[in-house]
Amino acid sequence: MTHNPIELLVLKKKSVKPSFQSFEYLDKFVTQTQNKHLTEAQKGTKASESLVVLAESDEASNFIIDKTVADVLAKYGDVLMDLHITDQKTYSKQVPMNQLYMKARIQITENDE
To answer: 64: alpha, beta or left, given left = phi > 0 and alpha = psi -120 to 50?
Structure first.
């Protein structure tokens, strides 16, 4: 049985190019996908601040980022730096085969309130 790698990255549109430089292997697995749920949830968001999904296919992107997840991402997307879901050993050599690893980076800012 062939194992298809799982690789999904959600990030701001302006961060796509730097992400391909940070993760050299990324361009072998993913491309920018059309996620219908995230597109709908982000209506009215400035294009430069909108989130995009990099994944192996539109189907995988829309399965993982469903309407509920897209609504949360749209609501809190202004603080999200990136959300990376993978079964590759990117962050740890300890990831067991067929197990997923998720890393979310957020930007915490001071609030005057």
So the answer is: alpha
Cβ burial, residue 48 (10 Å; 0-12/13-18/19+): exposed
Cα-based distances in Å from 63 to 68, 69, 76 = 11, 10, 20
Model confidence, pTM: 0.81
Q: Are 7 and 13 in contact (CB under 8 A)?
A: no
Helix (H, G, I), strand (E, B) or coil at 98: coil
Q: Phi/psi class of residue 8: alpha, beta or left (left: φ > 0; alpha: ψ in -120 to 50)? A: beta
Kindly report the number of other CB atoms within 10 A of residue 3's CB atom: 8
- Residue 35 three-state SS: coil
55 and 20 Cβ atoms separated by less than 8 Å:
no
Q: How far apart are CA 67 and CA 39, in angstroms?
A: 10
Query: Per-residue pLDDT tens for 66-113?
Result: 999 999 999 999 899 999 988 776 666 665 666 778 889 899 876 655
